Amino acid sequence: MNWSLFFGELVSGLTLGSIYALIALGYTMVYGILKLLNFAHGDVYMVGAFVGFFVLKWLGGPLAPAVTGWLAVAIMFTVAMLACGALGVGIERFAYRPLRNAPRIAPLISALGVSIFLQNSALLLWGPQFRDYDTFDLVGVKSYHIGTNFFISNVQILTISVSIGLTILLALVISRTRTGKAMRATSFDRDAAEMMGISIDRVISFTFFLGSALAAAGGIMFGLVFGQIFSLMGFTAGLKGFTAAVVGGIGSIPGAVLGGFLIGLTEAFATGYLPGGSVYANLYVFALLIVMFLIRPTGLLGSPVIQKV
Amino acid sequence: MKKVVVAATLAAALAVLATAAWGSTKGSTKVASQANASSALVKCGKTRSIGLLAPITGPAASLGQPQVHWAKFFVSNYNKTHRKKFKLVPEDTQLGAANGTAEAVKGAQALGSSASVLGVVGPAGSNEVKATTGALKGAGLGWVSGSATNTQITLDGTRTGFFFRTVPPDSSQSKSVTGYITGTLKLKRVYIIDDQEAYSTGLADEVQAQLQAKGVTVGRDGVSQQQSDFTSLINKIPRNTQLVYLPWQLPPKGKAFGQQMKSQGRAGVKLMGSDGLFDPLFSSLGNNVYDSFFPLNPADKRVAAFKASHKGTELFGAPSYVAAQVVAGAIDRACKNGTATRAEVRAQIKKTSIAASASLLGLKVAFDKHGDMVKKPFGIYHSVKGVFVRVA
Amino acid sequence: MSSLGGGQPGEGGLPAAAPEPVDAPDRVKVGVDEWVAEAEGRRAARSGLTGALVRVWERLPAPARLAILIGPFAIFPFITNEGNLYRYGLITIIYALLALGLNVVVGFAGLLDLGYVAFFGVGAYLYGIMASGHSGHHLQAEIAIPIVVISTALFGLLLGLTSWRLLGDYLAIVTLFFLQAFVIFVNNANGGLNDFSYPFVGKVDLTGGSNGLDQIDPLNFFGYHITTTKGYYFFTLISITLLMTMLYFVNGSRTGRAWRALREDPLAAEVMSVPVNRLKLLAFMFGAATAGFSGTIYGAVQSGAFPGDYDVGLLITIYAIVILGGLGSIGGVVIGALVVNGAPELLRSSSNARFLFYGVLLLALFIAMRPWYKPVVVLLGTIAFGFAVHGIASAVWSRGTAGHIEGGGQLGRALEHWVLLPRNTSSIAGWAYFALIVAALVLTLLRGWWRALALIPTLYLASFVWENKLVEQVSGATRLILLGGLLVVIMNVRPSGIFGTSRVEIA
Do C34 and C92 reside in the same domain of the chain? Predict the structure, then answer.
């Protein structure tokens, strides 16, 4: 039994999974309230990664930052999360709100349009080149060993813990605050919530803000762990994030996190153990989705949806 | 409704036959239409046109832009010293973009119908060469590529006499690489990772086969060009691997891979790239990095002049300079009597002979009967203090 | 004002005010019958030139409408050279054919199929396996094409089986997975070292891997080879005409009505004993067969099939065609293909693009703002504003006006005196782009003269961004940016596409 391979893929999977979980959270919250597949979410993730890169550059660049490495990282997170939150609110206001009563396919197409727009604006403004976070020079990547078989680096620990931390924070916001209660009410029955005096527009905007901020955090974490970002990274990540949300049960917050980690681990272990590993890794992830549909169409933690005529 | 469908199908069959009879040719007219275009006399005039097919925009623009710059560099150098000038007619193939090779074919069709174009430089990708064969051959144009390295495109006989290339094919590169790994470095365990693109898988297949024939243990895997997260893959590489071969096209990916190897404690493994990774980004990783690149005479004044006027190295595009040189020379010779046909230009390309001293590549440029260069070595480079130095 | 039984024109001697259009977005549509909605909306909402055109169009018999759509395409080869015919004609018709099939799946039956172009690829590759130098077989087209169409239909059947249990968005993901699987399979199935080893036959080179399946034979009917662009063009044109005719009849048949019922509300349709599952399969099969057929044509035209051609980028293009043309509208698809394929071709040269950009801007201005004097005022204001800014800038900040417009001809030279052209554009242009987006969005919130006033600096900013940034990448990123923006705008203004019929959802 090759323990170093096992532990290596475990760590790799958990890291990937935490990023996917953050993206999945955004998808699941929006779907829960609007029943809308927000295609543009993956591109918000990409914009977050780029904003983080430019903040870093503004601070002097990864090689000579004006403040110490970790403080720079904290500033990157804050600025990117706020900026992308605003971006998410803007997208909802102009691309989705006018279509709330339109046929189901219209907001879907609009989302596709926003996604194309964002991707190509990024291509236009920032070029197709890859941008390096140069994490090595920024915060100094250190690998920790436990025994001879278990390696984990400090950025990986950071990624996993930040992801879990943000999820807990989100869960607290949803269960303890009034706005969170309003969000839950709206996702349960929009018209009834409106009649109870909840401002639907505000609640939806807040949902988008939260989801996009989380996606931005995911983007920066990707940049830190893997060192590189580029304009087209949003597409596959968004797809996997949505898969994670569906696998975990769409509309369920813990389900999204569970789904994210499951997808990440599947990808890592498929790469490591299955034949044709890395080439077919994405297919194994989607095959997991298909299997999930056949066995439990509502996902692991989702609740059955009642269809009304 | 069923009756309608049946009637429609019958009508369709009839219509198809009618169209086929009307708009079709009976085998030989393909040659005839080719003959029409390739034997059409074109007045050479003061400015002659060379077509240029390259990915000017799109995901592969980082490969295409250097080619465009080097071709334009040649044309501007030529125009400075000659009375009769040349003009480039660029067509954007958008290699790697949404419609795949469709843009390349559109560009080839446009060049074919443009009466003044006598020869073409490009396209960049081997798949594009295959896709544009119909259009370019049908128009009677000869074309010379500075970067399409798939071994089979000159050997399969479909393009003989029409397609030439000023860059050694994958078979040369794989031979040099294998020779260096087994002969000089004397390694026994290699892992190959391709990036799923045609250029990469072709090269990887050849290197793998040759290494295995020499008794080296070879592992093989692939990543998509869209991927930046290599950690899962790096975990899979066996601990006793001595060298990882990366025949990739995008230097930033090579750099990311190297950095992620380091972060997972694999800094001691040697890395070797192909000509797509020949870039300071890759060599900056450290002194266990090797690369293979087509020969270029670094002492050549033109290389220095190009570097001075363009920031960044962009050496990848240098063979396109030579390709433009070949096409221009052929058109010059064909135009000696004031007019030329595309067939004459093709014949002259075949007879190209540029001496080593006049060629950017530091060796004589002449083509064999398949369209490959007669001499086609590949050099091996080692990263010393962040810069690639030739060692073989 | 009630929309049921709207005022009769001429009642009481006064012309009736046009009733509020029934498909206004914020109206709750409860209990309004679709037929009434359509008739009312059309009769009342269109006035003037567009109204007259629409009424004439609707009164034409179907064959005449078909002739008007196809006629220009039939004449096109005789007035242009081969290169242009390929670029503007053949590719447009092939995409239109492809989009027609998608229109059946998405527009008629309402199933969001994101794996559609995989069938396009299957068609090309199957034909290549049966008739190419690569595979060694050379079947004639009259045998190969039916085999390809039937096989692709079977694949469509298989994929359609997944739609039985899946609702809209989930179906989208599953079909997308199918597309990814297809691309990866085709990229690796070359019998090489990475490929699977099949039972009985071992490793087989099916698709040539990432190098593609090359040397595909031209279409060969009973010994007649189609080798010229004109030949393929007419072949495809006739095929699409026949397909459009067939679809027109299907639309009016029981199956078509059943599909529409399925699209509007699957559960209600099932309750009304419409055989929902069978219809879904039929839609998938029909779409797949059409895609397979267009795939054989495309493979023969390119004489090769390469993996990168059948990926998400093409999917987006075809979806754009179907959406712009209108879901469920047969003729609209052809127009959509013309716009989506023709426009980027026109945009290839930056001077063409410049004319197109300013032309469209002016047109949009005059269409969106009535009465006529408003856009004139805005235009004059913008020109004056521009000169003022340019004048101030050249006095205060010389670097701001040092740049040149390349290859713009007369218009370019005139613009040089009007637009700010800083020498070092990159970062300023980026912020300007961002500012432009914000300004455009703010514009949608303003009304009346405030909007007209805010338009002036916005238009100038748009011209600035265009000249300094967008023009650089006209055939690549800019085209897609405009496409994305267009999709959002169209969905906001006309959610059913340009020619689609507006649908009524009963709450």
Answer: no
**What's the burial of B357, exposed, middle or buried (CB within 10 Å: 0-12/13-18/19+)?**
exposed
Domain architecture of chain B: domains with CATH: 42-167+298-361 (3.40.50.2300), 171-293+380-390 (3.40.50.2300)
Is the domain of C373 the same as that of C398? yes
- In angstroms, the CA A92 to CA A46 distance is 17
Report the C-alpha gap between C186 and B126 in whole angstroms.
17
First to last CA, chain B: 74
Provide the pLDDT confidence category of residue C266 given band limits of 50, 70 and 90.
confident
> How many angstroms separate the CA atoms of A223 and A219, rounded?
6
Q: Does residue C339 sit in the same domain as residue C405?
A: no
Number of domain units in chain C: 3
Kindly tell me if the per-residue pLDDT of C405 is higher than 70.
no
The answer to whether C310 contacts B127, with C-beta atoms less than 8 Å apart, is: no
Q: Does residue B94 come out as left (phi exceeding 0), alpha (psi in the -120 to 50 range) or beta?
A: left
Distance from the Cα of residue B60 to its chain's centroid: 12
Specify whether C362 is located in the same domain as C422.
yes
- Would C415 be classed as within a structural domain? yes
Q: What is the extent of the structural domain holding C446?
A: 351-468
User: Domain of C254: which CATH number?
Assistant: 1.10.3470
Q: Are residues C196 and C276 in the same domain?
A: yes
Whether residue B110 and residue C215 make contact (CB cut-off 8 A), yes or no, is no
Q: What CATH architecture applies to the domain A3-295?
A: Orthogonal Bundle (1.10)
Q: C221 forms bridges with which residues in the sheet?
A: C224
Instruction: Identify which of B58, B226, B233 has the shortest CB distance to residue A271.
Output: B233
Angle between helices C330-337 and C229-251 (to 10 degrees): 150
CA distance A123 to chain C (A): 6
In a domain, C322, yes or no: yes
Is the same domain home to C20 and C72?
A: no
Chain B residue closest to A10 (CA)?
Answer: B232
Confidence of residue A160 (pLDDT cuts 50, 70, 90): very high
Q: Is C361 a residue whose pLDDT tops 50?
A: yes
Please report residues of C whose CB lies closer than 8 A to that of B30: 225, 227
Interchain CB contact of A277 with B (< 8 Å)? yes
* pLDDT tens profile C77-126: 888 777 777 777 888 899 999 999 999 888 888 788 888 999 999 999 99
* Residues of C in Cβ contact (< 8 Å) with A114: 484, 488
**Which of B2, B4, B201, B206 is best to mutate for the C interface (most C CBs within 10 A)?**
B201
- Whether B263 sits inside 8 A of A13 (CB atoms) is no
Tell me the shortest Cα–Cα distance from A247 to chain C, in angstroms.
Answer: 11
User: Chains contacting B with at least 3 CB pairs below 8 Å?
Assistant: A, C
- Mutation test of the interface with chain A: which of C166, C176, C265, C491, choosing the one with the most A Cβ atoms within 10 A? C491
Out of C294, C318, C344, a domain closes at: C344
How far B235 CA sits from the closest chain A CA (Å)? 6
pLDDT digits (tens, 9 = 90+) for B308-329: 787 666 777 888 888 999 999 9
The fraction of chain B above a pLDDT of 70, given in percent, is 88
pTM above 0.95, yes or no: no
Q: Does A274 touch chain C (CB under 8 A)?
A: no
Q: Is the pLDDT of residue B281 over 50?
A: yes
Instruction: Give kind and range of the element (H or E) at residue C213.
Output: strand C213-214
